[in-house]
Amino acid sequence: MPINSHMLSISGLSFERYFERVFEPVSFDLAAGSLLLVTGANGCGKTTLLRLLAGLLEPSEGEIHCPQQALYAGHNPAIKDDLSVEENIRFWMRFMGTRKSNPGNGLCQQIIEEIGLAPVALQEGRTLSAGQRKRCSLARLLFCDEALWLLDEPYSNLDHEGIVMLDRILRAHLDAGGACVMTTHGSLRPEGFDLQECHMQSGRHHYAGAAA
């Protein structure tokens, strides 16, 4: 993974929808080996912020400086229901085409073991529980090349063992010089990490007497 001491910098970033701010302007800097936790109430713009950082949306104001490619993993698992766990992972390996992702080198089986899905490796995606689908989606973290991860509520639907698994993967990524911006809701958050925190404030204003 390419290591760059400066991973991400945003200044005065905001986004408008229907001529109204989704969230109040946000600024922060992120260095290699760092984790930024984005918190806030439902609807305050956490997912919108990640989509801006991933280049899927254009900001209404402010600047984003990101000198390297980022991996964006959205809240919904990108699992094909008609493919098995193994087939889903092999699909992502071919699609992403990373240095680590040769489907024929035995890595796929190692990843299935690492994410704890060996007993259901041949089951179709439609038969998996919500937690198993999330584990399958997170498998991408184990063969991507990107040094910057943008993870939208990655702990959702995971049991205790799944949370420990994700913490282990995240720790290895940061120790190798990577960085991560992660949204979270409620008490689901990394344990035992030194981290920065960005608390989002909704930019929407509600006026007394306005129509619902």
Descriptive notes:
The strands form three sheets. A five-stranded parallel beta sheet has the order 7-8-9-5-10, with helices on both faces. The protein has a three-stranded antiparallel beta sheet with strand order 4-1-6, with no helix packed on it. It has a two-stranded antiparallel sheet with strand order 2-3. The protein is of the alpha/beta class. 25% of the residues lie in helices and 22% in strands. The chain has helices at 46-53, 85-96, 107-114, 130-138, 160-175; strands at 6-14, 16-17, 20-21, 26-31, 35-39, 61-65, 70-73, 148-152, 179-183, 196-199.
Compose a concise summary of this entry:
25% of the residues lie in helices and 22% in strands. It has 5 helices and 10 strands; from the N terminus they run E-E-E-E-E-H-E-E-H-H-H-E-H-E-E.
Q: Helical segment tally?
A: 5
Fraction of helical residues = 25-40%
Adjacency order of strands in the biggest sheet: 7-8-9-5-10
CATH homologous superfamily designation of the largest domain: P-loop containing nucleotide triphosphate hydrolases
Contiguous uncertain segments of 5+ residues: 206-212
What composes the largest sheet?
5 strands, parallel
Fill in the CATH topology of the largest domain: Rossmann fold
**DSSP strand tally:** 10
Number of domains: 2
Structural shape = globular
**CATH class division of the largest domain:** Alpha Beta
- Whole-Å distance between the termini? 49 Å
Could you state the order of secondary-structure elements as H and E? Answer: EEEEEHEEHHHEHEE
Helix-strand category: alpha/beta
Radius of gyration: 18 Å
CATH-level-2 architecture of the largest domain: 3-Layer(aba) Sandwich
Mean pLDDT comes to 88
Kindly estimate the percentage of residues that lie in beta strands according to DSSP: 15-25%
